[in-house]
Design brief:
With about 80 residues, this protein is an all-alpha fold. The chain contains three helices and no strands. About 70% of the residues lie in helices and about 0% in strands.
Length: about 80
């Protein structure tokens, strides 16, 4: 890929990444303490809503796993 092709592609990549980020943020806010299956389903729906469903399935699975584990983990006690 030459430099001009890279410069043409980067805005497209950046726009797709912004859609992916919005979908992840939305999923995190809507799936508090939800199991993996519910998080995965919500993430797939959020990606479709953002028109960003062209994501490798393994990436969706990993994001859903991370969201579900993060939300299921107890918050650290900061009052000690």
């Amino acid at each position: 890929m030459d430099h001009s092709e890279y410069e043409k592609a980067m805005p497209i990549v950046a726009a797709h990444m912004a859609k992916l980020e919005r979908a992840v943020d939305r999923t995190q806010s809507l799936t508090r303490r939800a199991p993996y299956a519910a998080v995965h389903k919500a993430l797939v729906e959020a990606l479709q809503d953002e028109d960003a469903q062209r994501v490798v399935p393994q990436v969706i699975e990993e994001l859903a796993r991370q969201i579900s584990e993060t939300l299921a983990s107890p918050r650290p006690d900061t009052h000690t």
